[in-house]
């Protein structure tokens, strides 16, 4: 009997351990001496379970995420209060769209402000690079989501010499100062790099070519860009080194396994919302008096 | 044996009949001689099943909705192509937020442009009433969703004499001309009124007062507005009479049962997307040549 119980307990402990995501955030956080090239893009830091358990854990916390998002929204009703900004970067096919669809898609759309930054327009180019970013910051109560961001201005811009080195060199500090102000004004900033390998990208592009329903997602320029893979990695490493601050750290999420990347971003969002420790706003009216008025209406 | 088979067949036919939503759209459509006061707000036009079956049917067509939305998005990639505009109106507590959360929330957020129209700002008031509406129209490939809309300018505005009668009287025609242009430019317009009874509204407001986690949703002004219930119904009737056109008809959805309202809007969206009969865009590049280039990259 004792043995059976022990076995059960062991199994339970093992499952509990597999379901424990409490170290994920710290494991993904970019700190001093971080080396992008050393990250195994197929690894699953902070999680020892499989795809099925990952999906289960996301389902298990869906209601909590929902509740926390609604509290955030409720607290922003008067135009003051905290907000959250999730920035998602990554090479082509890294899975940014999947994060938007499956992680952000699980949140009430009324509380989300999603911005996909494309190549800057003429109007945007006529302004400082942070101008369009500033306009897209989330209002109090909202979860802002950036699909690409100000970081393109030190990534693609650096790789392709779109501005002189003296300009992009200055931008790291400008980004840090900008983000410090954003955090100061009450926005929790979560910066995520979805990190895939060059081989994984190749197979994802291959799939887009193999499936006629994916042709529209394929752009011949994507193959050209593969020629700059190392320069991109170098630019990412520089951005991570220079802009992973205490207030607005980077999280590098290994993303060859899509299910892990989704779990990780879901968990990062959940962790940051939990940190806000939001209560429901107190009534700004006399509840009993309103009940009486309503009864008579 | 024959009897048992017949019974099974009967059950199957009955279930199939219950699952048949093909008449829903026509039954909800506002045509000649429509009488809002005659609508039973607890009825479920075009659907004879229950809450559970309604949820099942929404789940059954979730993948199709997803697929159709992605085709719409794919077709808009070059800045041309059709779009969809869903306008949702209704009295306070009619369930607009629930539609946004549960119906629109099931669609990929990357393909949705949601706008909640509040009381107009000073800037908006300085422009013609359609100015802010025009700016929020969906781009090609997108599903635009309006939580309230241009119709507030012939509803609350009319009820509270916010502009002279000669002004709001003119607006019905202006809205029709505007919407005709929107449809002409390739946008399918779906106008939904969520229709609840005054008693149902009372019980929903009561719930907001009873639950501290709902207090933030309660506004004492909502009780004052109940004093204008009949004037609102009259204004809705006038709007339905004058703006349910062949190109942009109104659908009045009985909404005392939230599950039915959600099924109905889901189905209306699905029906209109099906009508577009969208194919995946053909490749604009030489697929085989790209496969060769990719292989070498």
TrEMBL record, chains A, B:
Q: Where is the composition biased (Basic residues)?
A: 1-15
Spell out the InterPro entries in the cross-references: P-loop_NTPase (IPR027417), PPK2-rel_1 (IPR022300), PPK2-related (IPR022488)
Region annotation (Disordered) maps to: 1-22
Q: In terms of domain of life, where is this protein from? A: Bacteria
> Has keyword Kinase?
yes
Could you tell me which residue ranges the Polyphosphate kinase-2-related domain spans? 56-275
Which Pfam families does UniProt cross-reference here? PPK2
Output the Gene Ontology terms for molecular function.
kinase activity
Keyword annotations of the record? Kinase, Transferase
Which NCBIfam families does UniProt cross-reference here?
Answer: PPK2_rel_1
What's the name of the protein? Polyphosphate kinase 2 family protein
Give the species: Luteipulveratus flavus
